[in-house]
Design goal:
The protein is α/β, with parallel strands linked by helices and about 425 residues long. It is built from 13 helices and twelve strands. It has helices at about 30-40, 55-65, 75-85, 105-110, 130-135, 155-165, 215-225, 230-240, 260-290, 320-330, 355-360, 385-395, 405-424; strands at about 70-75, 95-100, 115-120, 140-145, 170-175, 180, 185, 195, 210-215, 295-300, 310-315, 395-400. The chain has a seven-stranded mixed beta sheet, with helices on both faces. The mean pLDDT is about 95.
């Protein structure tokens, strides 16, 4: 205890760790010139020349990166998830199982598609708990949204097995884990459909945007219809006669992307592997330097550590009191952290703060999924309904990693954690 900075000892991290993010921190003249070139061209509309537009080129490049057949650029990750659900034919009358630890947008997308979200506990992976998932499947269940939080893939093998056995569609929410891999595949290519967020805080960004993707053409076609009510007209203008649709076109939302965002995203995507190479090297160093048998915590469960994006580190303390003491001691050592779930921090990534979901509020009574005549199920919510999730998050310390850090910074982070764990 005497050597801890909290008690007057020297700090383990003498100089502040570098701030930063992922590819956002690598923005340079390439993005500026890509956007400027589009402005100079005057071609700002994606359907001016659909086959060669920036949007189409980005969608093709993203599909190739993911290893899927089809991608569609949309204005946000939330809308990408809505498109996944609509594309797979999931709507009123259906339940969709979502983790208790994810941004509220995951559950909001389910409501926007007309379905009912069912909230499932997370486990030490901080992703969906396969056992609780299976326990909450009902006759109304149609799909599962598996969320890869803070760059770490969830337990996809176990979740995919449950979905296959119970006849549920698996959708991957990769909004916080663009570029993550699960053994030999890129996350997002394993489920029936998936989505990226291209928001300012995500691994690649154009400020705001989203991408939905699938290898199922029928689902992709429905995603396109859902996003663009004028699609039959635009595509007819691009081709000789009416396109040969497999399904009947329908009108719903206007989610058209634009050429400026796509031009920036093409450059950002080209930098992704370089950025993740840096963050993965930092996290690998931290993990290698941490004590093998720590006293006060355990590491987050990760099926495939090599596939982790390396943008975050999670330590699960043995109890909430220990987490508070470790956080205070680590902050004094120069390593800022705090429990994921703590008093005075109403994080919308934790289900108990999803006010509009817990109170079952829709924008109009006629589209309320919980009271829709097609819905034959029954689901109840409460702030305490997932006690295991609240317990885990109340004792989980989070640390952010970024492209401006080096393996030496990783050694400093590990040294601070080891010092506090040994001396507390």
């Amino acid at each position: 205890m005497a050597d801890l900075a909290l008690n007057g000892g020297p700090r383990a991290i003498a100089e502040a760790l570098p701030a930063g993010h992922v590819t956002r921190s690598l923005i340079d003249e390439r993005e500026v010139e890509a956007v400027a070139a589009v402005i100079r061209s005057g071609q700002l509309f994606r359907f001016a020349d659909h086959e060669t537009s920036q949007c189409t080129c980005f969608e093709r490049e993203a599909s190739a990166y993911l290893g899927v057949e089809h991608s569609l650029l949309v204005p946000s990750g939330t809308m990408g998830l809505v498109n996944c659900l609509v594309g797979l034919g999931i709507g009123p009358g259906a339940e969709v199982l979502v983790p208790a630890y994810t941004y509220i947008a995951t559950a909001a997308a389910v409501v926007a598609a007309g379905a009912v979200p069912v909230i499932v506990e997370v486990d030490e992976s901080l992703g969906l708990d396969p056992a609780d998932l299976e326990a909450k499947i009902s006759p109304s269940s149609a799909a599962v949204i598996a969320v890869h939080m803070q760059g770490v893939p969830c337990r996809l093998n176990a979740l995919a097995e449950v979905c296959a056995r119970r006849g549920l569609a698996l959708i991957e929410d990769c909004c916080q884990a663009i570029g993550a891999r699960y053994f030999d595949r890129v996350t997002g290519s394993i489920g029936a459909a998936g989505a990226w967020s291209l928001n300012y805080f995500k691994n690649i960004t154009c400020g705001e945007g989203g991408l939905c993707f699938t290898s199922d053409y029928a689902a992709y076609e429905r995603m396109c219809f859902n996003s663009e009510p004028g699609l039959p007209m635009w595509m007819r203008d691009q081709r000789d006669g009416e396109p040969d649709w497999q399904g009947e076109p329908f009108s719903n939302l206007g989610l058209r992307a634009n050429e400026l965002m796509a031009a920036m995203l093409r450059v950002q995507l080209s930098k992704l592997e370089t950025a993740l190479g840096r963050t993965r090297a930092v996290k690998a160093t931290v993990l290698a330097e941490l004590d093998d048998a720590p006293t006060h915590y355990q590491r987050q469960m990760v099926d495939d550590p090599a596939g982790d994006c390396g943008i975050s580190l999670a330590l699960i303390c043995h109890d909430a009191g220990t987490a508070q003491r470790m956080a205070a001691a680590l902050c004094a050592e120069g390593l800022g952290t705090g429990a994921a779930h703590r008093e005075g921090f109403p994080d919308r990534h934790i289900y108990r703060y999803w006010d509009s979901i817990l109170s079952k509020r829709a924008w109009h009574p006629g589209v309320d999924p919980w009271r829709h005549p097609l819905y034959q199920g029954s689901v109840e919510y409460s702030p305490e309904m997932c006690p295991r999730t609240l317990d885990l998050l109340g004792r989980t310390l989070r640390f952010g990693l970024n492209v401006n850090m080096t393996p030496d910074h990783g050694k400093q982070i590990a040294a601070a954690i080891n010092k506090v764990d040994r001396g507390l």
